[in-house]
Amino acid sequence: MNTSPVPVVEVLSAEKVFGNGTRALDPISLTVQPGEFITLLGPSGCGKSTLLKMIANLIEPSEGRINWWRGGHEAVGKPGRKLVFVFQDATLMPWARVAGNVRLPLDLAGVDRGEADRRVAASLDLVGLSQFGRHYPRQLSGGMQMRASIARALVDEPDLLLMDEPFGALDEITRNRLDADLLRLWQEKNLTIIFVTHSIYEAVFLSTRVIVMAARPGRILREVTIDEPHPRGEAFRVSQAFAGYARELQHLLVEASHGAGPQPGDVVAGEPA
Amino acid sequence: MNMSSSTRRVPLIERPEFVRVAAPLAVGCVLLGLWEWLVHLYAIPQYLIPAPSAIAKTLVTDWDLLFSSLLITLKVTFLAFFMSVLIGTLVAFVFVQSRWIELSLFPYAVLLQVTPVVAIAPLIIIWVKDPLPALVICATIVAIFPIISNTTLGLRSVNPGLLNLFRMNKASRWQELLRLRIPTALPYFFGGLRISSGLALIGAVVAEFVAGTGGTSAGLAYQILQAGFQINIPRLFAALLLITVAGVALFLLMVVLSRFALGHWHESELAPET
Questions:
Q1: Quick check: A157 contacting B, CB < 8 Å?
Q2: What is the ipTM of this complex?
Q3: B264 has a chain A CB within 8 A of its CB
């Protein structure tokens, strides 16, 4: 159990203004502790994906800075400081089998064959795809492709998992199942997860803490702690507490988008609508 | 057409793979029969339109001559095709290194493409003494463009998500090329191969027409020219037939290659079921 008090991520007054002058994010500060499951929730254009990509070091903040485990980005990737990003789409290589896709990070890092085989098998097992290693991505459903994508993330044994609306394109039933499985993995693997979504129910079900964001300019509106013990099951989805949190978040989102109809500059780079 | 032995399980006539072969074959037979019949009916002289039977007879009697010519044409074709693939791929790799290189060189590739080979062939034949290299150069000029443009497009068509994934995993440039860019480019490359293989044959024939090389290195184009001069029209048709068959065979070879390389994953090679 990793009980180190070192925060996984510290966002320190980081802001983002894109080259065309679009202000994607006002200065934002956010500290993520080990073992948290943080959801960034907000309307499109609120900069939640931009914030996530800054944390992934895919985008540089215009001002302010980000610390990873109290250090710069150079130390990220060392044991105990592994950060993995899961994309909105499964982003699988169509020419490689599922197992080949999952082992890509290991191949790129030059992990030896036997070790890689073992970790790929374990990873596929975790997401329930052990029977599908020899399949090609096109032979899998959307939900299974996403599972393969998560298996590829897990094979690297990450400490911090960044997920950008990973289940946004899936139907609700599939999404609920994947959410439940993700929670199980988060607990089993002592992961820290930062998860972007625009689904209130997904945010309530998954998170220990929901960061509600507002658009124009992108900013943090409120933080809501979901005070519900894990493991959470289907019973939680239909409980009073769940409905209460959902209502609270719903009100906040209405506030967040108050008076904000479509405006020029709605399309923000790095923040697909 | 023998369809008596079909029946039993699925009738042969209803099988798509049978129909795919049999239907165009039947059309061909009917057309050839019609041709033969009309030629005899109107007693059309052989120096205008020879009957299919006469062409077939010539094909047999002149086989040694025609076959050695076919080999020479094929030799030029394959050499040109090989050069096109080799140089075209290398050029594409250079192009994708930077936009600057591509922007400054691509217009010249287009220039090469739009200049009719018949117009520059005489020059090349003057500059290059040996007929074989001269012909190969001409045919290469014709065949190279689809390889360059398709491979360049393919190497550039990398899924941005996958590219991000590779970058986040700190993949080297070499790994990125080998594991991402080349597999992405393969379907485009094979598309280029199909076009280029046909063009290589066309280029070989056209170049030989212009060069008019005879003697021991006489290809099929030379046989066509000679047959035309001698009003040996059946032989002309026979040579033409061989060129066509060679073109079709080349195309099929490319289809098989493409299926072999891409069949297991790319949409273009998948059966439309699933």
A1: no
A2: 0.82
A3: yes
